[in-house]
Amino acid sequence: MAKKTLIFGIYYLIFLPLLLGFYFHKSAEPQILIYNYPYFFVLLFLSILLLGLIPYLVHRFIKRLGFRKFLFALSPTVLVLLLLYLFCHYRYYAVKQHPFDPFLQAPHTQLDLTDFAEDEVVILALGGSTTRNIKLAEEDRYPYLLEQQLTSRYPQLRIRVVNAGMPWYTSKHSLITYETYFHKLQPDMVIIMHAINDISRSFSPPEFAMGPYQADYSHYYGPSIRGAQAKSFERAVVDVGLQYWFSSVRKHAVDFPITTYRSLDSYTDYLSRLIQNIQKDGANVLILEQRSLYKASLSPAEQQVLTFGKLYCNNGHRYASPASLLAAMNLFNNQARKIARQEGARFVELKASLPSELTYFRDDVHYTPLGTARIAKEVAAYIQDQQLITAEASP
Predict the structure, then answer these.
(1) Measured in whole angstroms, how far is the alpha carbon of residue 71 from the centre of its chain?
(2) Chain centre distance of CA 178
(3) What is the distance between the alpha carbons of residues 57 and 192, in angstroms, rounded to a whole number?
(4) 39: CB partners within 8 A, 6+ apart
(5) Within 10 Å of residue 374's Cβ, how many Cβ atoms?
């Protein structure tokens, strides 16, 4: 009886804190309480397994076999776990590949340049994940919807809007991709929407960056961090668990002052040079205001979907609060407006048509289909009102 009590005492001392830590995780897009559906059901399964099923089976086996025979009966299970470990260990090193673009981290959109006709009006949309919007179907993304809007407004023209936005991309990425690739399209117009990814480069989150802030963004590896910061199999397994363990407790929001966002100078340089290079090629440039869900007063439902600060704008356990990120978004959008005026480009205000509401945002900055539809409609109306496309625009 004493041995059984000791076994269960040790068991619960190990697994209760372990399980409790996973309860304090907040999913990126919560759907049940603070968890998304997959995490909730995995947590439910682990709770039943660790707190109910395993203790019950151990109790039954010890009662039926006795303590010594029970330990002997565990031998096959231990052997199976050892073989599973060896297999996973081998597979981790044998197939470990993390392909990425060595210059851009994430590869840009590939196009068949011969597919573009001379009489087409080509519009290039540059930006990050808010332009690409990979969680939406292609027909719900703003560049696609903009093409439909413009085609209906200019039925006599062949109009093509190319979505060249990519997740993780900053103004520097767009500068590189335009200069090395997309200028070959000879676009008639280029639409640029950047802010949030440049804002995040002011931080050095250990999950995605190495070392302190660098003005050229070289500290921020983003999706290529696994190639730059190789881990052993054992460390990788532990880290997978740790990212879900007490994650809501370990990190706390901080109202970082506006001086924290040191990447503003780099953003200014990259965006200005991008506009200048596009204009040298004879194309019109539109800079879109990047809207977000951040505002002075957030409802509990709105607060639940905010994840950008905690995931990307942190320096370890301290991350940028919604109020701090609101100030940063205003700062970068105002700077984009100023740059557009200085460089002779056009700045498109979106605040009136895209309020900070869950109807239009599924998280901090990514749009719902209603949000992208609003962007497309507003931009199309601006292009028409400013007569940026005319019947003579077609060669």
Answers:
(1) 47
(2) 22
(3) 61
(4) 25, 27, 244
(5) 22
- Cα 148 to its chain centre, rounded Å, is 27
* pLDDT tens-digit series, residues 9-46: 888 898 888 899 999 888 867 888 889 899 999 999 99
Q: Whose CA is closest to 332, among 264, 378, 274?
A: 264
225: its two tokens: 């961090």
Nearest-angstrom CA–CA distance, 203 and 170: 14
Chain centroid to Cα 149, Å, comes to 28
**CA pair distance 184, 165, nearest whole angstrom:** 16
The structure tokens listed for 313 are: 């704008």
How are the residues of the chain apportioned to helix, strand and coil, as percentages rounded to the nearest 5?
55, 10, 35
The pair of three-digit structure tokens given for residue 369, joined into one six-digit string: 């289909």
| Residue carrying structure tokens 């905010």 | 306
Q: Does residue 215 have a pLDDT over 90?
A: yes
Kindly report, residue by residue over 296-328, the tens digit of the pLDDT. 999 999 998 999 998 999 998 899 999 999 999
Under 8 Å CB-to-CB from 47, ≥6 apart: which residues? Answer: 19
The DSSP 8-state label assigned to residue 362 in this structure reads S
Q: How far is the C-alpha of 53 from the C-alpha of 59, rounded, in Å? A: 10
Give the three-class secondary structure for 36: coil
Placement of tokens 């460089």 in the chain: 343
* Amino acid 264: pLDDT: 98
